[in-house]
Design a protein that fits this description.
The structure is a single chain. The protein is α+β, with helices and mostly antiparallel strands. The protein has 18 helices and 13 strands. The strands form four sheets. A four-stranded mixed β-sheet has the order 6-9-8-7. β3 and β4 form a beta hairpin. α6 crosses α8 and α7 packs across α8. The relative contact order is 0.07.
């Protein structure tokens, strides 16, 4: 009996000296992550990033990693001991070895970030313990909508009554100017009602017919593309003196100021522009939810893209079309703020403004393609997919509607993708050498062939 007790004590003593439990041996007190198992699970979930390829293919993974927890609680000797990948239905699958390698590196990276553990003990003495942890790669969970957006889905919308807005702008313009001043003021006084916000933002369009700063928008974006941030910022400030609710200028100014922020003054100004643009986005939210039944109301096409990019956080689109009342934008992906495949914008006002401009500018007449007369001096070079186009004028580009462009290009069996108007001097020199010294500005139209399937639809 004494002999058995002696060997039992000797075994425990030797294990404590070796400080490494052998395979199958447990310790009296297992190591513990700070905060326990729940804290460990939360740590892994928050720090593990699933590769984009797995998200795209709806693949999940589980990688078992072994490591040693030393006497002082530090972690060493990390090894991947098991890998398992499943498809969206939960069936085990073979998968791209490069992605598996990414997962292994990510699992090791995350575990090496762990803080010190409380070490395992045997008879009160700290010992080294071999431990295993599963690192799980799951599909990211959709983030909950922001409270304001969630509330937006439940509220009654206030569609814009253009008849009333135009009447107020004509009969009581001073009231609209006052609302605009209050809406854009740095030190906001008495809060505006929802109806007053709508009257301020959409009433501005009727005061100026949206012609106040349009010519400067292209120049502003050209300066930014050229990296001339200070000049671009100066131009946005001039634009905002004319129309303090110009979304193009507000979003551009806030982005530039945040990138240049060196002191509290510039940061405060950036925040002011950001808050102003947010107030406008929230006002657009009052008018609808982006569905066919409740579209968002806009006065400029650029506001559609400002709203999608800078508020809904949507940057990619597949297609844009017009149904007689709304611009319908088919999205290439979604965000936590907007998860529908399409978004509708009521462009009643856009069509009205463009129509009034068209009355002042004749639609281009097609020139004789065999004509050899040279372009007039200081003309605008218009390119469609890199080829010079003589049968479309700059006035048409500047004042035509999206529908006009589509009709023109459809006659050439093309579908519009984008239009760039710029004044890059280096690039202009290239075009002057190719087309002649008459080139003043350049308009590039990117279009794609209309496929047979699209024609059938």
């Amino acid at each position: 009996m004494r002999t058995n007790n002696f060997w039992r004590f000797a075994t425990i003593f030797l294990l404590s000296l070796m400080a490494i439990p052998t395979c199958g041996t447990t310790v009296e007190q297992m190591p513990q992550f700070p905060g326990g198992d729940k804290a460990l699970k939360k740590f892994l979930e928050e720090n593990t990033h699933c590769p984009q390829e797995m998200i795209r293919d709806s693949v999940s993974g589980r990688f078992i990693v072994s490591f040693l927890i030393e006497k002082d609680g530090s972690t060493t000797d990390f090894k991947i001991v098991k890998r398992l990948l499943k498809d969206k239905d939960g069936h085990p699958i073979a998968y791209d070895s490069k992605v598996i390698e990414q997962c292994e590196k990510e699992a090791l990276r995350v575990l090496k970030l762990m803080p010190r553990w409380a070490p395992g003990t045997q008879m009160g003495v700290p010992v080294r313990v071999k431990y295993r942890v599963p690192v799980v790669f799951n599909q990211p969970k959709p983030k909950p909508r922001q409270d304001r957006w969630a509330a937006q889905q439940k509220k009654e919308f206030i569609p814009v009554d253009w008849g009333f807005v135009k009447k107020e702008a004509t009969e009581n313009p001073e009231r609209i100017k006052e609302l605009i001043a209050r809406f854009s003021a740095k030190k906001r006084g008495k809060a505006l009602t929802d109806e007053e916000k709508i009257l301020a933002f959409y009433g501005q369009s009727c005061l100026t017919n949206d012609s106040d700063t349009d010519p400067q928008v292209f120049e502003m974006y050209e300066l930014r593309r050229a990296g001339k941030k200070e000049e671009c910022l100066a131009l946005t400030r001039k634009m905002l003196e004319i129309n303090p609710l110009n979304l193009d200028a507000l979003t551009t100014a806030s982005n530039i100021l945040f990138s240049l922020a060196k002191d509290s003054t510039s940061l405060n100004e950036a925040n002011d522009y950001l808050l102003r643009s947010r107030s406008i986005f929230w006002t657009m939210l009052l008018t609808g939810d982006g569905s066919a039944e409740h579209p968002f109301y806009v006065t400029k096409i650029s506001d559609e893209y400002n709203f999608m990019r800078h508020y809904l956080n949507i940057w990619k689109i597949k297609m844009q079309e017009y149904d007689g009342k709304c611009d319908i934008i088919t999205l290439d992906g979604s965000s936590f703020r907007y998860d529908r495949p399409q978004i509708y914008f009521d462009v009643t006002r856009v069509r009205e403004v463009n129509s009034s401009r068209q009355n002042k500018n004749s639609i281009p007449k097609k020139e004789n393609p065999n004509s050899t007369s040279p372009p007039t001096k200081d003309s605008v070079l218009i390119l469609i997919n890199g080829e010079e186009c003589r049968d479309i004028s700059y006035d048409f580009i500047a004042n035509g509607t999206h529908e006009d462009y589509q009709k023109f290009l459809k006659s050439r069996n093309l579908s519009l993708e984008r239009i760039d108007i710029w004044k890059n001097e280096k690039k202009k020199d290239q075009f002057r050498r190719k087309f002649g010294n008459w080139v003043k500005d350049v308009v590039e139209i990117t279009a794609r062939p209309i496929s047979e399937s699209t024609k059938t639809r």
